[in-house]
Design brief:
- By secondary structure, the chain is mainly alpha-helical.
- It contains seven helices and two strands, in the order αββαααααα.
- A hairpin with a 2-residue loop joins β1 and β2.
- α3 runs antiparallel to α4 and α5 runs antiparallel to α6.
């Protein structure tokens, strides 16, 4: 059976080389590339990517302080560091194209943060790992759906870097969840 990381990488690659008229699955359903080009700008892409990255940083910090599981704690620490690096790269790219980022985690992501802070400590591990997988899937949807619509090379480079990392995170989170469900 192929790993999730391999399948994700193949999907992102296929989306990157697909001809312009090919239909793709976006968050709002099947859309042609021409329709998707009008959905999001490079600046919006960076803002959404930063929003997902900021949520992962916040959740990882909460998990680091609340979990007693050394494996989950180490994973959360790694995800925190990795996403701070990506956050810096996204922020720098955003400055170049005049994007203003709101550093606050809000909406559904804030609700998840509040939940992770308030739930019993023995439930944090699974909730954190599930939340990471959910935001990872949202990030993959964003990347695969919008990759070709982001014109500049620097942003595409960041997108590929994040995509590869999300694939690894998802695979690790999946393995950790599987161990905890047995």
């Amino acid at each position: 059976m192929r790993s999730a990381a391999f399948l994700l990488a193949v999907g992102v690659f296929a989306a990157a080389i697909a001809p312009p008229g090919l239909a793709q699955m976006g968050s709002s359903g099947v859309e042609g590339r021409d329709q998707m080009a009008h959905r999001i700008t490079g600046q919006d892409f960076l803002m959404q990517l930063m929003r997902n990255t900021a949520a992962q940083i916040e959740w990882s910090r909460i998990a680091e302080t609340r979990t007693s599981d050394p494996e989950v704690k180490a994973f959360a620490k790694k995800i925190d560091y990795q996403n701070r690096v990506f956050g810096y790269e996204i922020y720098q790219r955003g400055k170049e194209v005049h994007v203003e980022f709101d550093p606050a985690v809000s909406g559904k992501f804030k609700q998840i943060s509040d939940s992770l802070r308030s739930m019993p400590a023995d439930q944090v591990d699974i909730a954190y790992l599930k939340a990471l997988q959910d935001v990872g899937h949202q990030t993959v949807d964003l990347l695969s759906g919008e990759y070709n619509n982001v014109i500049d090379v620097q942003t595409k480079g960041i997108a590929l870097e994040v995509s590869n990392a999300v694939a690894r995170e998802d695979s690790e989170a999946h393995d950790l969840l599987k161990k905890r469900r047995k």
